[in-house]
Amino acid sequence: MPTIRRITDIERPLVEALEKRGRSVEKAMGAFLRVSVGEKIYVIDNKDHSGPVMLSNLRGWIDSFDRGDHLILLTMGFFHPRCYQYLIDEKILSRIALIGIGLRDFYDEEAKATAFGEVEGGVFDAVVSVLGDRGIDVDVVTCKYCGGRVVAYCCGCSALLCKSHFIQCPLCKATLCHTDVSDCYYKHEC
After folding, report:
1. pLDDT of residue 104
2. CATH architecture of the domain with range 7-140
3. Which of 100, 103, 116, 130 is the most buried (most CB within 10 A)?
4. What is the pTM of this model?
């Protein structure tokens, strides 16, 4: 069970962890924290509600920041699967990380922290380290079939897929589960 009640509970330890790593940290206007790493700007923001973060909320949140900023959004809830699909479709996986600390699905009974998107690098590692110190282990969302890095999703069953487990329809270019692991390709209609 998470040992924090609000994301703001980790503000001080997170600032200390980032400053120990030589990062410049400041309170951000309209966000939780702003971190400078050389030329890159990382914005860490939070949503304390425990329900799902829906796609419309995520889009509005992303649009409220500069396109060049790297964004990390923490929530006490979880992200609707369409949020992951949006990041893949818009090709912004390389600059956005989503971390859900609460339930992962409408039907989950136990909280399990998950991360999706830009899940490598010093700022993300500091966030995960602080959460780990509070007893919250963060699992990275991976390919449904092998645990590889997610680069696509199936238009048929919505499974998240790595580069080895998806195939594109030659007619409409829809991404589908590879024929070695599922029959989504054969069920697909353009």
Report:
1. 62
2. 3-Layer(aba) Sandwich (3.40)
3. 100
4. 0.87
